[in-house]
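Field notebook, page 323. I keep forgetting to write these up properly, so this time I am using the form the group agreed on. The chain and the ligand, oxa(dethia)-CoA, are recorded exactly as supplied. Prediction of the bound pose follows.
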Amino acid sequence: MTNTGIVAIDCYAPQRVVTNDELSRFVDTNDEWIYSRTGIKKRHLSMGENTSDICVEVAKRLIEKTGTKPEEIDLIVVGTISPDYATPSTACLVQGAIGALNAFAFDVSAACSGFVYSLSVADKFIKSGQCKKAIVIGAEVLSKIMDWKDRTTCVLFGDGAAGALLAPCENGGILAESLGAKGEDALKLTASERKVENIFVEKDGENSNYLQMDGRAIFNFSTKVVPENVKGLMDKCGVSADEIKYVIPHQANSRIIDVVARKLKMPVEKFYLNLSEYGNTSAASIPLALAEMDKKGLLEKGDKIIIVGFGGGLTWGSMLIQW
Ligand code: UT7
């Protein structure tokens, strides 16, 4: 059977970089707290570009570097929790902007698992033969849904986009996946609430437009579910930890990754982290890391890697990929 291969990967982050020190001029925080609790040193923040704008940059880069014609793209999927609109989808805005006339397009809402979920959906369309070329992007402009007075969230997140061009391949590519959700804890991480209000119904209380998170609860959830999820995936595939060259986790907190590595009995050096540069970019964080690794030449043909997302929903998901 045909597999789905990653033909190319690329990224785009807004130019404006904000250090912890700069942030502490606006918010009651400091570099020592942020870095020691999270591993974050800086983040890229949008100076006006919206989520679709940064996705379009990624899509253009992917098309250009692979010599693909826009009309050859069959499918565009964007994982995001910070779309420009509820409708149109971000993916449709990208489709229009790049002239991918033959593509169908939609967004996936799975927060920090958004890239893994989106890849999973695109993988099925390619494996089934329905699509030959797909673009999958994880993108967020989280700065527009931050409460910049809430130091418990606003110091953590950043803006960015990254994605992959997918096509059928004979060997390697996406080998296996394991996705999950725990809706009973859904309200531990929320954003952009919209209560019912119409001519017959008066709104019951205010909407909390901003991203809100029970950080401790998500920390405990992540350090439990991620090792179980990754171990389950490796067991299912009969792959040992030694055979995995890198694990690319969602970049939320380096302390989470320390615990995950310890529980999996894997050296922490196998976990690729770049959150010191970008902060937590939700659906964008895994492809941003992959694109950086690709640029550095860290990924060689045949390498087996695992990507693993976790966060709002609550959701999680891992994938075994042979590069
Ligand atoms: O991407 C989606 C998934 N999200 C995650 O995976 C996030 C998971 N959670 C975390 O990474 C951590 O829980 C946080 C980084 C969010 C918080 O770290 P923590 O060690 O759990 O800190 P805390 O919330 O328990 O706060 C400890 C103290 C509090 O002060 P008191 O009550 O002990 O006096 C906070 O008020 O740190 C204080 N604090 C801050 N101080 C300076 C909270 N935020 C800040 C801040 N600067 N920015």
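OBSERVATIONS:
- Residues 29, 33-34, 37-38, 112, 151-152, 155, 215-216, 218-219, 222, 252-253, 256, 280, 282, 311 surround oxa(dethia)-CoA (CB under 6 Å).
- The domain at 3-170 is CATH 3.40.47.10 (Peroxisomal Thiolase; Chain A, domain 1).
FOLLOW-UP: compare against the apo run.
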